[in-house]
Amino acid sequence: MLGVKEIEEILPHRHPFLLVDTIESYVPGESAVGYKCVTFREEFFRGHFPSEPVMPGVLIVEALAQVGAVAILSKEENKGKIAYFGGINSCKFRRKVVPGDRLRLETKIIKQKGPVGIGEAIATVDGEVAVKAELTFMVGGSK
Predict the structure, then answer these.
(1) What global pTM score does this model have?
(2) What would the pLDDT profile of 40-64 be if each residue is shown by its tens digit?
(3) Domain containing 58: what range?
(4) Helical spans, DSSP H, in the chain
(5) Pick from 81, 102, 107: which is nearest to 25 by CA?
């Protein structure tokens, strides 16, 4: 299990944009499972939406990408690098994510050729699908 400090050793993201609280398990270059505990105190709830707080779908997709980045950047040859978004395909939003939800984030790397790869990502709350997407990434630069 990785906590925030260990996640920050792998990812360049920092508060308030680090959207993963823990990594439950990961296999370098293959997959990762993490969690985001969604609280009412999240900054984005002030404007999205004041009368009915809902976590923006794009931030759920970003959280999935960060979990996938833990998997890809924990490979020895990628340590210290950055994983950039290359694309988002087949993205479906199926459920609202609201304060009090514990978001389970799972990303499996299904294809990689050189610095470019594709991850299959799914976010759930209590076993119910919130978001499903195929994420394309490119590894480069350094943090």
Answers:
(1) 0.97
(2) 999 999 999 999 999 999 999 999 9
(3) 4-140
(4) 4-10, 57-73
(5) 107
Separation in Å, CA 139 to CA 7, 38, 54: 17, 28, 31
Residues labelled catalytic: 48
CATH of the domain at 126: 3.10.129.10
> Beta-carbon neighbour count of residue 77 at 10 Å?
8
Number of domains in the chain: 1
- Please report, for residues 36, 53, 108, the alpha-carbon distance to residue 67 in angstroms, rounded to integers and kept in the order given: 10, 24, 9
Q: Are 34 and 20 in contact (CB under 8 A)?
A: yes
- For residue 46, the tally of other CB atoms under 10 A from its CB is 10
pLDDT digits (tens, 9 = 90+) for 87-97: 999 999 999 99
